[in-house]
Amino acid sequence: MNVRRSAAALAASAVLCVGAAPAALADTPSPSAPPVVPSGLFGKADPTYDGVWRQSLALLAQRTVGLKPAPQAVDWLTGQQCANGGFASFRPDAGTACDDKTMYDTNATAVAVQAMKALGGKDAQVKKATDWLKSVQNDDGGWAYAPGSPSEGSSTSIVISALAAAGEKPAEVKSKAGKSAYDGLLSFQLGCSAEPASDRGAFGYQPADGKLAANADATAAAALAALGKGIVVEPAATDTPAAALACPAGSADPAGAAQGAAGYLAEALKKDGHLTAVTPGADQPTADTGNTADAVIALAAAGHRQAAAGALEWLQKNSAAWANRNPAALATLVLTAHATGTDPKAFGGVDLVAALNATGPAPVAPDTEPQKVAGEEKPGSGNQNIWWIVGAGAAAGMGIGILLSGRRKKQQ
């Protein structure tokens, strides 16, 4: 799952500020005075915009490789939930009740649903969170990052994946206007009339001047959602070629939409072996590591292992600098390895599991033996810092994606 959050959250905050009193942001700490990072939280960077997101991904990744996360890490996540079931991106004082000033975050809530479901024993919390997500569904069937805003492709996809992981049937989750979650999702797909033809099958973030533009971030998330899958993808037993959107028929159902999205991603990866994006302030595209990982997971979920093979190899060679001491990025790579049947403890010469464990509270079991991380023997868990050994060209892998894809724009 793409892990870049901060700029998207900032953008959402800016939109809200236009029509809201300054008090509406009182629950969000000033960027100039970042909060103290709690001991139970993964990562040491400012968690204002991604605390719940990175924690959820870290716990999911640990569970995926058979580890039992530390109780304080689990307690930190569940303690972030508001009484109504929703989550903000981060609440520095979880002891203070949420109120009408709380900036709720559908993305944070959705990924927390998946983490709590995977942890087990959190059925009440999961139900409250899914009920809250359903309560903020827009009339068109979709969701926005910030409730009350227009729907967008990325958040709609993330919420649908969470609902599916929680056991809900997205086709039966309907808005007050009678539109289903899948109605909302499919409205963001570029169909057979899209130009250029290479964009057909992709999903967009939001229309601009009435027109959708292909967005890799939204497309990868939409492929998972349309398949009814969450972030954790089991390796496929068979492999099939990825194909372009079937035209002139287009996508008649979510499954067809997912395959069209996968076909777009497969073609997009062929050019350089990875995705690219033009970052703010730049005039040339650079490697987009996070969306490349997302694309690999989406292709694996769709049963297209060979189509993802080149990008997986690129990630193994170029993701170290991007993920260095970054729990959300490390967790995403662990989930990428899992989806493709790759060993996360030998991912391009790096033990992703040990590196992830080192960014947060030590897991309870069974990972207690020393593990090799980038050529050094380090304990398999704990809060010590691990600096990866990065090759001279690794910095080229530090793509950060499109600013307004609606999701995680900066890993913390």
TrEMBL record:
Limits of the Prenyltransferase alpha-alpha toroid domain: 70-171
Region annotated Disordered, chain positions: 361-380
Keyword RNA-binding: no
Membrane-spanning intervals of the chain: 386-406
Signal peptide: 1-26
InterPro entries registered for this protein in UniProt: Prenyltrans, Terpenoid_cyclase/PrenylTrfase
Record key words, sorted: Membrane, Repeat, Signal, Transmembrane, Transmembrane helix
Protein name in UniProt: Terpene cyclase/mutase family protein
